[in-house]
Amino acid sequence: MNPSVASRTLRTVGAWVVVGIFFFPIYYWTSVAFKHGNAIFSRPPNLFNFTPTFDNFQKVFGISFGTGGVTVTPGGGNFYMAPRIWDSIVVATLSTLLAVVVATLAAYALSRIKFRGRHEFVNWVLSTRMMPPVAVAVPMFFIYKQFGLIDTFTGMVLIHGLMNLPLAVLLMKSFFDDIPVEIDESAIVDGASRFMIFRRIVLPMAKGGIAATAVLCFIFSWTEFLFALTLTTTSLKTVPVVSSTFVTSIGTAWGNMAALGAASIIPAFIFILLVQKHLVRGLTMGSLKQ
Amino acid sequence: MKDSIRKAYLASVTDRFVKGQMDRCSFLRAAGTLGLGAGALGMGLGARPFYGISRAQAQDQELKPNADVMKWLGDVGKPFAGTTLRLATESTPPSNAIATQLKPFFEQATGIKIEIEVLPLEQVLQKLTLDVASSLGTYDLYYIDQSWAANFSQDVFDPREQLKNTELAMPNYNIDDFLKPLVDGIAVYKDAMVGVPYDIPIFIMQYRKDIWDELKLPAPTTMEDLLNASKAITDAKGPTVYGTSGQMKSGHYSLECDWTAWLWGHGGSIFDADGKFCGNDEPGLAAMAYWDKLKATMPPGVDGWTWDGEGQSVAQGVAASMLSWGEFFPFFDDPKASKVSGLMEAIVPPKPTTTLRTVKETAFGEIPGVGHQGGSSLAVSKYSKAPDAAWVFMQWATCADTQALITVLGGGTGPTRKSVYDDPRVKANARVGAGTTRHLPVVRDTIANYMGSEPDLPAWAEISSDTIPVALGKYFAGQSGSAKETMDALKIQVDAIVAKG
Amino acid sequence: MRVAQVKRFVVSDHPLPWLLPLVAILLVFTVYPLIYNIWLSFHEYVPRKRALEYVGTQNWVQLWNDARFWQSLTITFIYFAVALAFELVLGMAIALLLDNDGFGFGFLRGVLTMTLVIPPAIAGMMFLLMQDPQFGVISYFLQWIGLLDPARPILATASTALAGVLLPEIWQWTPFMVLIFLAGLRALPREPYEAAMIDGASSLQIFRRITLPMMAKVIAIAVLIRGIDLFRVFDYVFVMTSGGPGTSTYTLSLYAWQQTFSFVKWGYGATLSLVTLAIILAVASLFIKVAKVRW
Fold this sequence. Notes:
Chain A is mostly helical. Chain A contains 13 helices and 2 strands; from the N terminus they run ααααααααααααββα. In chain A, β1 (247-248) and β2 form a beta hairpin.
């Protein structure tokens, strides 16, 4: 057999196996969402042989699939979670917007304008990411309380935007670094101002980078736990925090939690798909091919 | 027809109906013969979606709050319309029942909005501590676990004082209706009442009657019985089925709860009369020896479980018994969630091996008793911006009528009021099936006669949720020498923390 | 300044207008908390009086003598090192594997990224369930192949608990590294590869001599970003073990959280956070110097 066909097949098989292994927990979790409490806990573990049920999804989303309406579980059912997914989406989207806009402006300057202390400034921006979240959460709680920002979209968007800023700045700077300075310089010769160059010329070229940065910011906001836990009480809750609600005094409602978890993969995944085209191309941090 | 026969017949008839072996008309006729109105039946049907019967039917019948209560709410609550009240609570049956089904009644009658934040127990403590430390009034009502009563006693109103305000007092609220042992064990700290008892998870002995009968074992009424039976079951049926289970997760409060049951049950106590830790004395070490033997008969996962895993191990038929929260019992009877529906039996906790220590021999209000109680109280925060509205809600949430509804809707959770145990709606649910209340007589008996309560002191939250379970966890993980060495080291730690005050 | 001057300033070469929003936000949200925490570390909260009291350097002294702090530090370091090693090596290997335009590879790359969109708090619960000693898939599998003793559950045994917590970590973040490395690989110029092929170099040699050096900058940044986050790890431990069994999975962040929120020792919690910050700063700066990361 042609050695390269053999090695290609091996590679393909290997790739599928590896991704399969990584995908398995997601499959398992989704299957838990479709099981009754009984079937989730079986020995040996039951991966394929169970009767699926929509009960868990019904409880979590409060909609009936025609098998009897919203029902009460032994511990009571406080599992109506659909609004939480919306909360998460709003916070993630707006905070991504904030982070990307501020970061892009700053990153352009850091890339193009050689001012004294530039290296140290970037180091400083990076170092702000090093703060343990606990250390930020406590003072923020008090400030937020003072300004009435607890439990508000504004509050959460701000804190998540901030959280993502250092990374966004770093990423956008390297994308801008990849765009040759000569382009800027030739435009300057033509008499354009910095801002115009930025807006008209460089920005469109960095679309891929913006997409990549946006995706990462969205993911980090979507999955963030500590700030969401500390800075919200009842009106606003994001998906990660609300998953704790499934831990009741008589046991964890795994089925319902899995239903929420499985459903919440979808919005984030859609977001990724939308920008996927730019994603891999845009994550380039090495040199662009000419 | 004799009362007991009538009850048995009703149970079997309900059972047949539920299993689809009888149609609705025949069922109602049979029930009518038994002298029970459709109303009482509605209670039994209401809590579960038995094979297609929707909950809506139950609501037509009497699963609604008492009309007088609703009227009072309207009169007293309407002035506060538009207020929003916040409560952070553990996901226990009463809170869940209120949050999902009963809240709308309240909100409709008064125009006050209720927002309930449901969290795991540790997070409730964290949020409350933060709220109190900063006097921010984020929450209007507090859900206070009995082990935190000492910490928060200064931050809430004493309901006896609140009741003096006759304008807002609910007629027939009857604060004396709360079971006295519960009031003392949960809601009192140094003569101040820290709210009213709200829920009462308490240790009762729950075991698989079918397995006990199969192996012809005597019911586990003493510690020795339990150990012997457990050993026999594990020997005969292990590793598929083990004799008993535990909630021994290292570093978790649940481990401390288990420890107290065995400690008190061997005549020991946490503190001696001088307020010094004495878990390392002779009875304490006897308890540890017993526990070691018992643990050998438990499923291997026991070191990683809280009551959650313990309940699951019994529900899935892996463990044949557990001395743990009565709240689990209805869960065991639910055929959709457990494999042992109808097979479980509840009795009072095993008798201690020797005489229990008395309150005089312990400190900080510690009451030894094998039936460890983990109840909580509900109280109005002193920092609340709307304390009067909160008081109205609190009365409603803890009145007899609401509690009866909670018990029926919330899956047979233990009431804290005498009258609720005798409420016909609650009694009608005493059959096999999800939401059963057939274990409640045992719960009531345990509360009255066998209850054990933890000490109340400010440092207790830390000691019980961290110091003790971490030390015990290390011991069971083999990381800290013998039981004596562990207990001696623990004594030094606990005494130091108590001394700091 | 007058309007015309302002306009010229804004469109000039001065970096300030560009950086202003960034600096403003960072000042409020990071510099202020930093100062607050430093101030806090010299105080402690007294529950009885419901107030903060000045305690001088007591917290710092206590920290130095606190065995549990040093243990947390060790545990965090081990977590950091093991996770990073796995994620780097696996990430690179899988990136090389998937760097192909063959049929379905795009799909595979997409599926791989799904692990990233699951909140770590939920991923932790997933793996908690899967490692359940009685009903968990992973436990069952490991017992079946004889690697796991049923009497010593993964998360309940001190020696293996950290491994149990590392599982979701590695599972979730290796794809992150894969993404970054893939992008880096795709941007590499073709010529050196073509030259090497003509010279008849083996795959291993190509990787070591060509790919690796050219990817150096990307690897450095990946290490930096992931490394910083690993040191601050909180979600998995919080959800899965709460630091147990005993104290075998107590990371620094968890310890600081517990002191601050469970025991209201704000001063001590702040001290712990500051020390964590200092350590991360030190290690990161060292890395930037040694790896010659240049912005």
